[in-house]
Amino acid sequence: MVTDTPSKRHQHNSTKQLLGFFGSMNLAITLLVTIAIASIIGTVLQQNQPYNDYIIKFGPFWFEVFDALQLYDVYHALWFLFILTFLVASTSTCIYRNAPIMLREMRQWREHISRKSLSAFHLKAKWQLGDKAAVPIDTLERILINRGYKVRRNTQDATTTLAAKRGVYNRLGYIFTHVAIVVICVGGLLDGNIPIMVSERLGNILVETRDVPVSQMDEKSFLPKDNASFRGNITIPENQAASFVFLSVRDGVLVQRLPFTVEVKDFRITHYDNGQPKSFESDLVIHDDDLAKPIEQTISVNHPLTYKGITIYQASFSDGGSKLKLRAWPLESSRDKSFTLEGTIKRNTEIKIGEAKLVVEFENFRKFNIHNLAKESGDKDFKNVGPSFQFKLRRNDGRALEYNNYMSPTMIEGRLFLLSGVRNSPGEEFHYIYLPVGPDGSVKYFMRFLELLHDNRAMRKVAGQIADTALSVATDKDPKLRQQIIDRTISLGRMFVQGGFPAIEQVVSKNFPEEKQANGFAAYMSIVRVQLAGLFERMLREAGTYKNDQLTSRQEQFYDDAVTALTAIPGYDAPIYLQLLDYKHIEATGLEMTRSPGKYIVYLGCALLIVGIFMLFYIHPRRVWVMVTNTSQGATVLYGGSDNRKSPDFAREFEQIQLALDAEIKTHNQKSGPTITRS
Known about the structure:
679 residues, 5 domains, Double Stranded RNA Binding Domain, 6-stranded antiparallel beta sheet, alpha+beta, 7-stranded antiparallel beta sheet
C-alpha cells in the first residue's frame, strides 16, 4: 500500500492554494477594474505628447508625479503590462480549473436522477394513475422533443426516466468569454514593445532626447527593419520621401527603419464652412527593390495602405516648410529702418535690431483662417480672413514670446486693421493689437507716425511749438521756463510711447497728492495729446494728405485708432513687427505607421468575446425530467425541472409542458376510465 508523505501533501495543498488564488473571482475583478481605470486614463490623457506640453498643462509638480506613474504612455508602462500578464495567468487558471467541469456537465444527461431529488425540485408535478392506467412514454417524449429539448430515455426495473435538456451550450459562453480575455491580453502583450524595453534595460538601445537631425543620432537609437512590433509617426512634406518613422519613448524618440521608402506626391484638404477640416488625403508612392514598379495609392482617414505587414494611416497634417517673405518694422527706435527678410516654417532666422540679436523661430503657417464675423450672438457669418503665420521671437537671454500675425487686413467696425497676437506660453490665448491700415492698404502711415515718436528731433520740434504756444499768452517769457516745458513735454511723450497710459498714471501718483491726481493726469494727457497731434499732422504733411490744415473725418478716426494701437504696443513686448508680404505654401502629411502582429489576435479575441456574451445572454440552460414508475397498484408520473437562473420564463414554459403532459395522460386513459390524481 502506497501512502502520501507529509511533504507531498503539503506540496499538493500549496499548489491547490496557489491555483485557488490565481483562479479567484475577486482577483480577476480587481485586475479588470484596474485595467479599465488605466484605459480611461489613457483615453482622457493624450498619450505620447512632447513633455513640454505636459509641463505647461499640469505644472512641474504634477508633471513629475504623472511621469513617475508612467501615465504619458499608459499602454506601454511596465505596470500595465504586468497587470495584463497577471490577468492572463488568472484567467488561464480559471479556465484550467472550471472548463473541464463545464464540459463534463454539458455532456451529462443525469438520467439516473433519484425520485427523492426530483421531488425536492421547486418546479414539479405528480400524477397518480389507477391500476388499469397506461402511460404513453413515447408521446411524452415527443412532447419534450417538440419543445426543443434533446431527450434520453433510461429504464431500470419498473421505472422509466426521460431526461431532457436544452441550451447546454450556454456553458460554452463562459469558456469563450474567458478565453477571449486571455487572447486579447496576449495580443496586447505582443504589441506592448516588451523587446524594446528589455533591450533598453540591457543598454542595447538608447533613447534619443536631443533635438538633433536623424543624421546626427546615435546608432543605438535606430531599430532594425525586422522589428516585430512598433507604432510610429512621421511628417513628410509634399514631393519628399522617408524610409523611417519616429517612436515616442518618454521624453525622447527612437528611429524605426522601414523596409521600403514612402514618397508623398500630393496632399489635399477640404474644410467645413466654419474652417474645421472636413477631409484630408495623401497620394503616396511606395518604393521598394522587391517591387517591379512602385505602388501608387491614395490614403485618407479610415482608408489606410498596408504593405509588408506595415499599415500606413492618414493621421494628421501640418506645414511642410512654407516659404515666407516678410517686412520687419522697428517698433522701438527711429534709427532702425524697415527691411525685408525671408523665412521658412520650422526653421530659425537670425536678425539684428540695433545692437540686439534676435532669433525668429517660425513655427506654423495657415493659408486659411475661417472666423465667424457675425455681429449678433448666435448668427453665423463665416469668412476667410486670409493667411497667418506663427513664430517666436527669442532674445539673447533666452526669453521668447509667441506671436501670430495675419497677412490681410481685417474689417472691424468699418475700418481695416492688421492683427498681431502675442502670448507668453502655448497654454494661453493670444492677445491682439490692432494696427490701423492707411488709405493705401498698408501700415506705413502708422509706422511713420510711430517712427516720429522715437525721433528726438521731431519730438523736440513739436515740444518747442507747444512751449511757444503756452508762453505766447504768458507774461513771463523766461527761456529757462521754455526749456522746462520742452523737457517735460518730451519726457511725457517718451513715457507714453514706452508705457502707455499706465506710465503716465505712475508719474502722476508720484508727483501729485491723491486729491489732485485726477487733475494732474488730465493736464499731462492734454500735453501728450497735443504732442501726438503735432506729430500726426507732420506725418500727414509728409504724405501730402494734410490739406487746408484740417483733418478729415477719416483721418480723425485713423488718429484715434493709431493712439489706441500705441497704448497696446508696450504690452506687445517686441522690438519689431513682422508683416507677411508673400508666401509659397508647402503642405505636409502626418502618417502613422504600425506593425501590429497582435492586432489579428485581438480581433479573434473580440470575436470570441462577442460570441461568448451572445451565448450567455441568449442561450438559457434548462433541464426537465419525467419519471414513470409502474407498480401493482398503478403508475406514478413525476415531472420536474430546473433552471440555473430561476427565470419567470422557464416557470411559464414548465407550466405549459405540464399542461401538455396532463392533457396527453388524460386523453390516453379516458376510455379505460382509471382514476387519475394530480398533485
